[in-house]
Amino acid sequence: MSSHLNVVGQSVRRSDGIGHVTGRTQYSADRSFPGMLHLKMVRSPLHHALIKGIDLSDAERVPGFVRALTAKDVPHNRYTILSLIGVEPEEEFVLAEDRVRFKGEAIVAIVAETEAAAFEAVSKVHLDLEELPAVFDVEEALKPGAPIVTHWGNNTFMYEGHPCRRVRFGDVDKAFEQADYIVEGVYNTSPIEQAPMETTGCIAVPEANGRYIVYTNTQALYFSLDNTSIILQIPGNRLHFIGGTVGGGFGGKVDVIVEPIATLAAILTNRPVRFTYSRSEEMQVSSTRSAWRIYMKDGVMKDGRIVARKVTSYADSGAYSRQTPYALTKHAANAAGPYNIPNVSIDAYCVYTNRQPSSAMRGFGITMASFALEVQMDKIAERVGVDPWTIRFINAYRNGDMKPHRKLAEDATLIETMQAAATLVGHELPDEFKAMTSAPRDASHDGGRE
Amino acid sequence: MARLRGTGIAAVNYPTGMNLGGDPSQALIHATTSGSFVVSLSATDLGQGLRTAIGQIAAETLGVEYDQIVIDTADTDTGPHDMGTYASRATHRVGNAVIAAATEARGDLLNVAALELDAAVDDLELDGHGNVTVKGAPARTAKLADVAANAQFKYGRMIAGRGSFMKPKSPVDPETGAMDPDSTEAHACTVAEVEVDTETGEVAVLSIRSAYEVGRQVNPALVQGQIVGGAWMGMSHALYETTAPYYPAVDHSPKDFSEYLMPGTLEMPEIECVVLEVPSSNGPYGVKGIGEMTANSPIPAIINAIYHATGVRIDDLPVTPEKILLGLEAKHRGLS
Description:
heterodimer; A: Aldehyde Oxidoreductase, domain 3; 5-stranded mixed sheet; B: 2 domains
């Protein structure tokens, strides 16, 4: 087929390359507009606290101060970005109301003539906070008596009545009884910053016709526009979102945090408003990759076949769920890995703590599953007494295998990919693995594993 | 004290796209007077080269030269709906939408060319280099630029196409987890070599060598960019990065790149790859998504290599020198 292709498959020069390497590519923050104001946030210094009072009087006297925005200024202040696709409940606040749930949570937006004036006014807002007990660990958060982060009484996202996303396939308990070996592991991963070169930001500009142009580096223009429309309770046709080249996303720019408040400030002041994260905000306030704790238990036969896998995973969502509930669903569909395992049980919990929220990042729910299960595969190989290549070839999935989430494997090429890697590094595989393919299992050839 | 070397492997699959509440991308294409084609989208380019790859897919389907394609994105006033650039979905979803739009526009183009060349549409072929020709009659040929201009000025026709692609919503069964969450699976197998300094606990990654199977490479240089960049990110996740160095403790959280550690160019190992192409059934020209997955297999490959080198198993990321030294000490005490 590729012989009939003209341009697909060719390394044509990227259309934006010259702009990138000569510094002429325009990013959203490169724009400036006459009369543009700057927005900076007053943020919670505590991990968990009740808001008893906000005193703006000193801030208002700072030269260049234009106005402050608090929760009561936001038309639909409590929101959930995934409500666009039916995810409930609405749980996060554009600006905190009576309680802050993580250190760095936004409480007051200050709009000023210059960045310096905005920073100075932010420093002069006086908060009266009453500190509450906080919880920072996924399993501590699930214990009875733990501080409750959410407004509904427990610290897990609820999946249609279950506190976790479940996968149930075969009978793991029976298979564990019949297994020759049980191999267990506990895997922990740190929260990680997406670390884009360009920090999250936007500029909202009022137009004479009553519309607002929002120049933004979001990864998802309509997603941001539709959420802004809901939060500000204005029709979508008054919003015009313009993106372009994003200076690195890696999942960090799909949360719709800066656009609604910047647009609201532009509406209320009738002037262009810029809201761009500093590097410390990007690292300490904007979403990270979740911290994960993954418990993995495998039942294995003497010949190396994995007959059962039980996974219990906890993703630390932080104070609000953002995209994390979907990461657990994706995790649950992939925690068995590219292997054919006939009995699988997965419980994947999205847990709320008083940490900085986590959300999407490259490999969403899967990167950390791949880490855990590929280290686990090496432990299994060692236990069985075979090398790391062998354990993977023995268990590799093939086209037509049923995955634990009851989707038939198609487009499987794990075996061919491992063969190519072995060739690349000069590792000599046994003939039986060289001859193996991902073609559907044939009972007459290899016994048609259950 | 010694420098210990080890090798580790890891093999992974990775899903392309997600379903969410139905996962659509849409595209519009129209021809200009000079015979170039404007592809209007609202998908964002994250620096990975989406505009370039989509331009190639549009050129391929239209049967015109890549230089004739103008990618107009991302503007919600002009670009039709797109869910966004994430989940390794963009080339797959947008590419399929662009193929649909380009197929319709190509039909318009050939209808006008048929008038120009006084031939049946079925007898025409595009050479991919700016010409349309009557099959078997190479002298009966027209330049696309002329066809496009005449469509406007002579025939009053619009050469245009619209395309939509959607992965339908697949609700998850809350009891069993039965679901159809993705469109296809790409694969990778990585072999990492490390050297561990038992005095300092530092890990030097000597090489990261991988095989990838990505369905179809639209642009091999861009695929290679993902693989090299992802290997760096995977190494960084395995050994360096954290916003909570002592999770669950909340102190020592970094504020900038002097506190948030990542490998620099001097730490980068040799990175080598081979790419296999086994076209998917539902991607544009068989594409699978490679955007996210390239950071995945390097992580466990490096961690397995550290165990191979030292006999110390560390199951907490990132594997810092501190953890290596504590692990070596515990192992030493256990043996003595």
